[in-house]
């Protein structure tokens, strides 16, 4: 299982944006890699149809979307994700 974050920042150059994303990641103690998206024409944003941030997408080992949630996940969404992961991950 690999988790990636895709952050979108406005204003400043890429280095300043990366610095702000890094600060938030440290503050929230995120342990997964953060990528910096390139605005509305970002290929990842387009490919996954990201309209709302956050959007969480889980892909299987073939690249198929097996779970998706737009907006901050509530307890029910997180429970659903946990059940899905438990079924798919080796024990």
Q: What percentage of the residues does DSSP assign to strands (E)? A: 15-25%
- Tell me the number of helical segments per DSSP (H or I, 4 or more residues long): 3
Order of helices and strands: EHEHEEH
Low-confidence stretches: none
Largest beta sheet, briefly?
2 strands, parallel
Radius of gyration: 14 Å
Shape: globular
How far apart are the first and last residues' alpha carbons, in Å? 13 Å
**Quick one: how many beta strands?**
4
**Strand arrangement, major sheet:** 1-2
Overall pLDDT confidence: 87
Give keywords.
91 residues, two-stranded parallel sheet, two-stranded antiparallel sheet, 3 helices, globular
Description:
The protein is globular. With 91 residues, the protein is an alpha+beta fold. It contains three helices and four strands. The model has no long low-confidence stretch (mean pLDDT 87). Helix 1 links the parallel strand 1 (4-7) and strand 2 (33-36). 36% of the residues lie in helices and 21% in strands. It has a two-stranded parallel sheet with strand order 1-2.
Give me the secondary-structure topology.
Blueprint: E1 4-7, H1 14-27, E2 33-36, H2 43-47, E3 55-59, E4 65-70, H3 75-88
Parallel strand pairs: 1-2
Antiparallel strand pairs: 3-4
What would you say about this model in short?
The chain is of the alpha+beta class. The chain has helices spanning 14-27, 43-47, 75-88; strands at 4-7, 33-36, 55-59, 65-70.
């Amino acid at each position: 299982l690999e988790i990636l974050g895709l952050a979108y920042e406005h204003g400043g150059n890429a280095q300043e944006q990366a610095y702000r994303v890094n600060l938030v990641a440290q503050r929230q103690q995120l342990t997964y890699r953060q990528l910096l998206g390139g605005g509305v024409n970002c290929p990842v944003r387009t490919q996954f149809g990201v309209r709302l941030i956050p959007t969480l997408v889980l892909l299987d080992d073939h690249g198929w979307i097996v779970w998706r949630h737009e907006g901050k996940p509530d307890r029910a969404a997180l429970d659903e994700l946990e059940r899905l992961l438990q079924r798919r991950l080796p024990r």
